[in-house]
Amino acid sequence: MSSRLAAVSLLLLAVPAFAQPAASTTPAAATAADDSAAIAPSALKLDVNMRAWYVAPSGDLQFPGAGRDELTLESLNADSPRLAPYGQAVLTSDPWMVSLSGFGFSSERSATSTFTASVGPLAIAPGDRLTTSLEFQSAQALLGYRLFAQSAPDWLRLRALAGLTVHSIDASIASGAVTVQADQLALEVTGGAMVSVNFIPELDADLWLTAGGGADSLSFDLATAFTYRPLPWLNIHAGYRFMAVNIEDGSGTQRFRWDGSLAGLFFGLGVRF
């Protein structure tokens, strides 16, 4: 009798255990959980990055005035690379992101002319000593929204970007006592995309691609950056940036135009808050 009671007791204890649903351990369930975690809203993050851009300008310059000849920066010996400050602050709270960035390039170069040209009031002959100055600044404000995120095998994110870009250029050529100079400020509406890949927790790669246009300018901007974080708050950057710009102002003999580009490697440090 006692043995029967013991068997019945064990059976009653076992029933609740079998009645409880078992947790799914299938690959599909694990993948769904990973993807859900990947696209969940994240905490607020602020990255402030300062970089040095070793950038070389190129392209054609045309100045207002009677002389309408275009000159290349190469012919003026004004295409040598220079270090330019390049900063960016990125505020992220998925799915949203705000980016503020800007850089400034300045160069003054001298060369001996090997050509004949008429540039505004300046008549250039072979042997003339020319001094070319070029200053270019660009600032950009972008709002980003995450369109896609995947957690495995690599953490991949795709964001759409929209915002505004402002360009400022000041260029001049001097020979003797004669100087031809022009400056222009251009505002563009900008759109594009950003792709981010997290290879390991300490290493990211970002690709920024934007294009903009306005009444006086068109631009295309591509930047790729690798970021290494030896500490959770420290960013170490290295990458490459290419920007093509066409800026025009005026018409006829009063027309100024720069159709050129800026390109080069950059490196720098940043802090994450």
Explained architecture:
By secondary structure, this protein is mainly beta. The chain has one domain: OMPT-like (Lipocalin), CATH 2.40.128.90. It is built from 2 helices and 14 strands, in the order ααββββββββββββββ. It has helices at 2-19, 27-38; strands spanning 45-62, 67-68, 71-72, 82-93, 96-112, 117-120, 122-124, 129-150, 155-175, 178-200, 203-213, 217-231, 234-249, 256-272. The strands form 2 sheets. A 10-stranded antiparallel β-barrel has the order 1-4-5-8-9-10-11-12-13-14. Strands 2-6-7 form a 3-stranded antiparallel sheet, with no helix packed on it. A hairpin with a 2-residue loop joins strand 9 and strand 10 (178-200). The longest helix has 18 residues, at 2-19. It is elongated and about 65 Å long. The N and C termini lie far apart (72 Å).
